[in-house]
Request: fold
Amino acid sequence: MPPDLQRGLIPRDDALHLIHALHAVKDKLHDAAQQWELLDESGHVPAAPSCAALLQHATDAQDLSHDVLQLAADFARSPHHTTSTGRTVLKHLAEAATLSSHAAPHFTETAETALALPRTANPTDRHYLTNRMVIDHASARAFLRRSSESLSDAASELDQHLGLHRFLASMTPQHPSPGPSPAKSSPRHR
Reply:
């Protein structure tokens, strides 16, 4: 393979390692977005939402955001971010980091609103706070989901890059390996 092409490629093992890491974090983000619910089984906001559970959502979202940011920072420090594919992957990682960082504050605002509900006697104010809580929680989950999608896009970019590896390897002329050397006859002593 020509050296110029070789320099433009992310080594296969590095790409596979990053794809594995991206999928692991992507799955955590996706699972959190699916599982962390505010509404009960009937689709209504509970009369007394658990502030502890909502704050735990915020804590866990912040941990997930840290994982995404760490992936982005590690890749940005690698020499691979300067390749064409690397720049695209880094763009997706930066987008995922930005999106995931918005989730925790929205979960925290949901918890803050949940604390205000019991002190609200006015039905209009209660209705407003309930709607605000639903919107904040849904927004937080959407940020997690969109961050997961950005990580998926980064992994897809690397998958395509591995396809380029395979294509270029198939274009490289294969030198036939020399066959086995003929057996030499040895003199026999009797």
